[in-house]
Amino acid sequence: MKEKTIFQKIFGDSPLIKVIDFFLDNQEWDYTKIQIAKSTGISRITLDGILEKLLKIGFIKTTRTIGNSTLYEINKENIVAQNLIQFDINMSLNQPLETKEERKAVEA
After folding, report:
1. Which of 24, 59, 69, 77 is an S-S bond match for 54, by CB 3.0 to 4.6 Å?
2. Are 30 and 47 in contact (CB under 8 A)?
3. What are the domain boundaries of the chain?
4. Across the strands, what pairs with 73?
């Protein structure tokens, strides 16, 4: 099982959070639904509804179509995306590598 990211530790690991986290962690490229579904472990049916919501609020945008596949990327011009990108960066930089409980377990 894949370890939760800092973003998921804070906001949970619902399918919506997993997709948002995917786009925050993969900003440099565009991705097909199949790639997103495989990476997040979310079914294509669930993913369709999430992508629709994220497109509607402008968090993601379509970039191109290859054959029958539409590709998506985070919309860096969207204020919500900009703020979540900065938040994710700040949390990554300021997050201790282990929790107090994990530290105690190692020390014991």
Report:
1. 59
2. no
3. 10-107
4. 61
The Cα 47–Cα 41 span in angstroms is 10
- Could you report the per-residue pLDDT of 43-97, keeping only the tens digit for each? 999 999 999 999 999 999 999 999 999 999 999 999 999 999 999 998 888 765 5
- Rounded-to-integer distance, Cα 31 and Cα 108, Å: 44
Tokens 């962690």 map to which residue? Answer: 25
Torsion-angle region of 67 (φ positive above 0: left; ψ -120 to 50: alpha; else: beta):
left
Proportion of the chain in helix, strand, coil states, percent, rounded to 5: 55, 15, 30
CA distances (Å), origin 29, targets 19, 44, 50, 74, 107: 15, 20, 19, 9, 41
What's 10-107's CATH class? mainly alpha
pTM for this predicted structure? 0.83
Burial class (CB in 10 A: 0-12, 13-18, 19+), 5: buried
Among 93, 104, 90, 58, residue whose Cα is nearest residue 77:
58
